[in-house]
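Entry 12.
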Amino acid sequence: MESINLISSTIRRVDHNIIIELEDGTPLFIPKSHQEKLNNFIDHKVQFGIRPEFISLADDTDELNTCNGLLTSLDEYNGAQLLKFKIAKEEVSSRVTDNRITSNYIGKKIRFNFDTFFGHIFEQETQVNITL
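Predicted 3D structure (tokens):
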């Protein structure tokens, strides 16, 4: 079982929302319920933590919290697929159950969707969870 993904990011304010920006520039919107805790961390480098089961394959109609990742490996595991992909320089894991991805996709870009409600944000230097 894969542990939590830790993805280098920066907290940003866009209009009236707080987002995290991945190193490749992808914005991920943070739920309103978590935003107030992040007001003092605007433009700070952080680690965005999210478990593989909260990263899914994006549907064609998904626009919010999606990013392109370069698929690097695919493993079958107890009826699920463990997909590893790169965003900027980081490898990230996703666990999906729909089995629509085959080994033919390795080396190709795939769109992923992040359920940021289940994410945690850690201050980069201290590793303290600033979303609790």
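Annotation: The chain has one domain: 5-123. The chain has a mean pLDDT of 94.
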